[in-house]
């Protein structure tokens, strides 16, 4: 998790951005924390849906570059990391964090181009599920692992399928592994960088890492104003807005409740995929998503009892 970008001071006292940040804070304070979490989930999934729409004109790697680049620019406006005085360990964690962020987004978008949103997000969710199970280490965790395995098995294209591919599942699994690493690296960066500066540092590094691939595959199309505008929107919806909402919620609610609500993300992705992209899942796919959600809920509650 990250510190709310809107709670950070700005360098330019004459800017109107702090006033806008104050208005945003008051608006967020009026919303229940559970509502903030759900808004964050919807923001991420709507951003993913818009990104998938861009795949018709840009390859996934180019869309990832637009998303991360836009997010990094916005984060630099609200939380500039100070590079002076960083130790080599700080640099190592920051660079690894950024590289993981780049690979996580690239592999997820490659999965998204080959799978329905609900399935891609559900498989990616195995990453944080694995972190929760590892933190708990109870026999009951075998049930959650089994449920998750059943879910993946139900999603697998055992018969020829136009909407689901083994390559897409592979990319989603890589994204899930990166998400697990992201959780651990986020905690490490949070202990070494103040506020949101660790995330900003990582996003800038991520943008640099992904730029050669994104620019090469996107080419001159990346200069189209309408695509740049959509890319900015995807960056805001997928990164800046949900990060801010999630941390605002975490400051006002127990972490285990937050984890339970976040477990609903695969279902939200499936619904957004249906409503925005017209992606219709069959009964088996919905059952698979249900298994992974149940596994995530169980692991989250078990992890909370272990921690408390």
UniProtKB/TrEMBL annotation:
It holds the Pfam family EamA. Its main location: membrane. It comes from the Bacteria. InterPro entries: Diverse_Substrate_Transporter, EamA_dom, EmrE-like. Keywords: Cell membrane, Membrane, Transmembrane, Transmembrane helix. It is a multi-pass membrane protein. GO terms for cellular component: plasma membrane. It is found in: Cell membrane. The chain crosses the membrane at residues 57-79, 91-109, 115-135, 142-158, 164-185, 197-215, 227-245, 257-277, 283-302. Residues 167-298 form the EamA domain. Belongs to the EamA transporter family. This is Inner membrane transporter RhtA. It comes from Nonomuraea soli. The lineage of its organism: Bacteria, Bacillati, Actinomycetota, Actinomycetes, Streptosporangiales.
